[in-house]
Amino acid sequence: MSAPLTSLDRPNSYIGRSVPRPNAKRLLAGRGRYVSDLKLPRMLYAAFLRSPHAHAKIVSINIDEARAIEGVHLVATGADLAKICTPWVGTLDHFKGMTSAPQMPLPLDRVVWAGQAVVAVVAESRAIAEDALELIEIDYEDLPVVADLDSARQVGGALVNPGSANNICFRSQLDNGTVDDAFAHAAHVVEEEFSFGRHTAVTLEPRALVADYDPAAGMLTVHHGTQTPYQFQDLYSRHYGIPEARVRVIATDIGGSFGMKLHVYHEDMAVVGLSILLGRPVKYVADRIESFVSDIHARDHRVRARMALDAKGGILAVDVVDLTAIGAFSTFPRTSVVEGNQVIRLIGAPYRFKNYRATLEVIFQNKVQTSQYRAVGHPIACAVTERLVDIAASKIGLDPFAIRAQNVIPDDAYPEISPTGYRFEALSHQTCLKRLHEMMDYDALRAEQADLRKRGVYRGIGIATFVEITNPSPAFYGVGGARISSQDGAIVSLTPSGEVRCLISVTEQGQGTEAIISQIVADQLGLALEHVKVVTGDTEVTPHGGATWACRGAGIGGETALQATRALKRNILEVAALILQAQPSALDIIDGEVVDAVTRKPRLPISEIARIAYFRSDTLPSGTQAQLTVSHHFAPQGYPFAFTNGIQGCALEVDVETGLIKLLKHFIVEDCGRVINPMLVDEQLRGGIVQGLGAALFEECRYSETGQLMNGSLADYLVPMPMEMPDIVIGHVETPTADTELGAKGVGEAGTAAASACVLNAVNDALAPFDATINSVPITPAKVLKALKRF
Amino acid sequence: MKARAFSYFRAATIDQALDAHARAGDDARFIAGGQSLVPALSLRLQAPRLLIDITHIDDLRGVRREGGHLRIGALTRHCEMLSELLIAEFAPLLHAVAPFVAHPAIRNRGTFGGSIALADPASEFPAMTLALDAEIEIAGPSGRRRVRADDFFIDLFETALQPGELIIAVYVPLFKADQRFAFDELARRRGDYALVGCGMLATFAGDRVDDIRISFFSVGNTPTRVKGAEAILIGSRLDAGRIATAQGALEGDLAPPDSDEVPPAMRLHLARVLLGRLLGRLGEGA
């Protein structure tokens, strides 16, 4: 018996089909072209001397001995680079009142975090450069260190920026409805303080770039492991005064980015300057030890939150104060306040209530800067909301599924506006909740839990609903004055052999961007997938666009490819119609053949159309100019963001004697709209969940009281490893956005958004018999044992 | 990070290695598996002028019986602890411990002698030499000698090895029919340095403990035998009360260091939990 035919059984119907990534085999075969592996003729290597102090005045720098070493070509200080590079400031206009000090590639007179690069050495090898670093003498004078949130907020305490009134970077408030009134009349109020540790991205390939300035051509080429080549083309051009058309940024294969590789790093900007000063290619690859003290960190929030509910468990109001400590600067060009901003705007997002108040305070401290990292703000908003919901459920005597089913915005209520002001087009919380309940076999899990508890085995079950921001419009950065595009561009061409090449501005970091763009192009044109070639990541070749961040690759990049391909198809059919003496509307393309639109009878291969158009245009009617290359741009309109939603669940076991937690199984039901490649969507969800589980149990940048990172190596900073990861069961609900033809929304951050909240709820569920609670991630054995009063 | 430049010499015999070291003085290091030394070189925590590669010295290889002992050559790789039948039969504790030592890539290169010589207080194998009452054979400028594990570990990364001395082999008493062993460690991730770990070897007379050696790691500056707890167990049955008394004795046996992540009281608690679990297993026949 065969299954009924579906749309996937049509020829070339690649949208919705799991096809392998075209680049996977190449990367597996070791043929990746990573910047880390790149060697150019006459290339030199940079290394940086870093500050051992979290806050100190630079009294003097002696570079004489370092400069004298054979093989050293340049030793440069902040003053040298300040002559050719203009400073930058990490603020955006739409964050009213925000401040941040100007930044330079290397500091002039003061270091503001331990690990900050101070002096650059360029030499014939990295080893020689490091030899020279050992000979540089810097005389520092210690300044008072602002080492954490509390000392930063202390009135009259140490200041990150001497001369400023306080350590505040940005404050924001939301106040909708009648919060005080709702709390005053609530049947139940639950309140908790939460803390979220600092963590960092730990990409497989660290940050890497080769800057190659050619003085003869006045041309700067930067091979850069980044998500956003166009943004850096613009920045290198502006800050070094080179016309944009003479700056080329090439970002080919990249070993992971997770948001970490779209910020301006001081060393990276310095390397461009070093190449300009030397007129030679200069390479810099951050080693792992450097990555820990110079890559952006994320999270580091303390949130006090309370929720008011009616007698039956209906949510009435939420009141939140979020304090977050960033670095000594706000990151450029996307700032360090977006995370906090998203925390206060995403809290409560799945639920229908009207009264919401939030205060955000973003604070400077002497640590490396924080900024956008996978699922910006989401895990914090989700953990705060979902923990409060669970605490309330337990207080009122409701099951976690029941209280959520009662409070989520109903699937038929859209469009709807969140209590924080976000506009939702269509979400599917009710469907997702129901599906998760079935997938987890929830009632059986609960029965097993009760049974095991009698035998001294403490299992926990946790769930967490979430809303994710994807497909951002210019409302995200553009309105704040950032030259960060929210549109994308594609150039699609029919080659003389009848294949299609697509140059597109969205980029590939291993998530399969090129695969889904190929699928969309092949599907929309009517061509076998292997006849589509997608090219990304070179500002000299691919059109300008936002590239890849905030889950915009599929939704915006995909729609760009779809519209561009439809335009190319129209053009091909116009030429075909002339050749076949038919109306274009009477023709279609299937599997690379122009066919009769009604009978599907093949009329002419598109390779033949290409041959005639390119080589025998003399045989076409006079006046015909075949347009077999189409360039097309697409900017999102309609809703400012395409929100997605889903729910996660997990089962785990807490060893109440040791505090160790074993993850047993993880579940997710997710709605990212149109699924283009189910396999890649599942990979995104699994990878994202693993990152969220890392945050839940393992990852934290721990600092001393003097601002020194205590665990800056992979021996001490614990990333999630396969032995500790559970099986992950995935379910899908599809609610396409009507804002685009494609209907796709993003999926890259959904896994990370709720995984830690889910684990936090499950651990508290496991500890329920002990009257012990934990409201802090990562959940370490020390925190569990402390909560259980075991030591 | 790149190591500072150094010279490299591959020794073919023990004497060649010792000679090379004697000539270079303090500026030389022996290298075998390199699993600790190479990172230290790359981080420039160590910058010797000469590395003496001992991995081609045949006399440092091999596992064989010698009288009442198993002689385990210093170059025996961690992975060989899993594959070598003589170890599985006559030193089953080491066989059982090996899967806990780091990850496969490290086990493929790291050597038994190297691990003992480094004496990382968080490593499994140095602690196990204490539980096994092993002897360590050392060659140096002034000849050869054997040092009992009990006398070998002195302080943090400090051992009875003198400058220029080399571990040749480790002698482990053959496992006997009336003996039982147990091992486990508590770690946040498999393969990490443990929060606390423990191995033990006991000789039974019927259901009574005739002799027991219990060794902890990740509890202080050196791998540590807990002689107070041992004394409580010798001559007794492993019943719940006796186990609890032994757990109580750990407070006197161990003085865990302060660390930012694991306070001393927590480590002591974990050591007690682990000791209780392992003695329970030992009582059940391990």
From TrEMBL, chain A:
Pfam family, one: Ald_Xan_dh_C
Assigned keywords, A-Z: Molybdenum, Oxidoreductase
Domain of life of the source: Bacteria
Keyword Oxidoreductase found: yes
Species name: Bradyrhizobium nanningense
Keyword field contains Cytoplasm: no
Any one Gene Ontology molecular-function term assigned to this protein's record: oxidoreductase activity
UniProt name for this protein: Carbon monoxide dehydrogenase
Aldehyde oxidase/xanthine dehydrogenase a/b hammerhead domain segment(s): 29-144
UniProtKB/TrEMBL annotation, chain B:
Keyword Oxidoreductase listed: yes
Residue span, FAD-binding PCMH-type domain: 1-177
PROSITE patterns per UniProt: FAD_PCMH
Keywords from the named record: FAD, Flavoprotein, Oxidoreductase
Database matches in InterPro entries: CO_DH_flav_C, CO_DH_flav_C_dom_sf, Diverse_Substr_Oxidored, FAD-bd_PCMH, FAD-bd_PCMH-like_sf, FAD-bd_PCMH_sub1, FAD-bd_PCMH_sub2, Mopterin_DH_FAD-bd
Pfam families, A to Z: CO_deh_flav_C, FAD_binding_5
A GO term, aspect molecular function: FAD binding
Protein name, as recorded: Molybdopterin dehydrogenase
Species: Bradyrhizobium nanningense
